[in-house]
Amino acid sequence: MNTAALRYETKARHESMRELWRVNGPALTRFALKLTLGDKHRAEDIIQETLVRAWRHPEVVDGRVDVIRSWLFTICRRVSIDMWRANLRHNNYVVEENLTDSPNPVDLIDQAVTAMDVRAALAQLTPEHRQVIVQMYYLGRSIAEIATELGIPEGTVKSRTYYALRQLKQLLSAPFSRALTA
Asked: Taking the complete model, does pTM exceed 0.70, yes or no?
């Protein structure tokens, strides 16, 4: 490859990474902060390693925009788990077997990822379906309370709940693009 072509390719990759950061940077930062329980420095380390892996895989970065965010979040999650495990190994922590009160950081990461998946799926529902699901499952209201609150018949609440849950099941069980690995 000649020097001009190499410079052009390098410039294109820089532009691609800038665009990747512009579109996904804020969401990736929020996600990394959740994974580190607010530790800004560790979150920055995780983001940096995630972006290095993205740089190493231009075939993913230059691919479809709808795939890259889930790929980045998956890589970010894996990097945070790897860093947590490496930290345990290198700091020679003594782990007692009866530490049942301490939450497992990997579980917290899984919960954060699940919550993000559920939020994304809820965002794809119609406003009427989303409203019923939020009222029932997040606010703990009964069918009668929801019907009164929304001014609709109880049968409509049941119907909307049924179809909303059916669509959520499809959205959440659809194969995500997480099969791409670093």
From this structure: no
